[in-house]
Design a protein that fits this description.
single chain; C-type lectin domain-containing protein; seven-stranded mixed beta sheet; CTDL_fold; Mannose-Binding Protein A, Chain A; C-type_lectin-like; C-type_lectin-like/link_sf; 173 residues; 3 helices; disordered C terminus; alpha/beta
């Protein structure tokens, strides 16, 4: 995900570039089926934002895609996966809070297909104009944070961590 003129769009980048990133993990208080928590209490760990069944955290430390994924795993999550336009809008809003493009959990495989770091198939994409390019062996995906292309993707430094709330409830309870 990138910032500036192409904010929110996706872009393919070299995996050894350093970006912040977006991680995702399960909220600790949810086991399906459940009722939503009271609006005054954040069900996610400190520093995370709740969205549906997951918690998201924008990590503004620069990291390669692999290092970002490892950092997310250490916190019980993975780089953020985006399954639909609602998730895209939310994650793009999170990335916009940062100062630079952010890694998400999408990466090109050896066969040229793309796969999410959590193993889900790719049902939705939000590529920036002309992306993915495979320029200079790019294959890791970031989200643009710029206002002109906000939320679109680039195959390419901030990262967004995602944790599943269901898994968190097992960890914290």
């Amino acid at each position: 995900m990138t910032t500036g003129k192409i904010s929110g769009f996706w872009d393919d980048r070299q995996c050894l570039e350093t970006h912040s990133f977006v991680c995702e993990k399960a909220r600790p208080d949810i086991s399906p089926p459940t009722e939503p928590p009271p609006p005054t209490k954040n069900p996610c760990p400190d520093g995370y934002i709740s969205w549906y069944l997951n918690c998201y955290k924008l990590v503004e430390e620069l990291a390669t895609w692999n290092d970002a994924q490892d950092a997310c795993k250490k916190q019980g999550g993975h780089l953020a996966s985006i399954d639909m336009s609602y998730d895209q809008a939310f994650v793009a809003g999170v990335v916009l809070q940062g100062k630079a493009d952010a890694w998400i959990g999408l990466r090109r495989m050896v066969d040229g297909s793309y796969s999410w770091s959590d193993g889900w198939p790719v049902f939705f994409t939000q590529w920036g104009p002309g992306e993915p390019t495979n320029h200079r062996q790019e294959g890791c995906v970031s989200m643009h944070a710029s206002k002109w292309f906000h939320g679109t993707w680039n195959d390419t430094k901030l990262f967004l961590l995602e944790i599943n709330q269901i898994k968190l409830s097992r960890i914290y309870h």
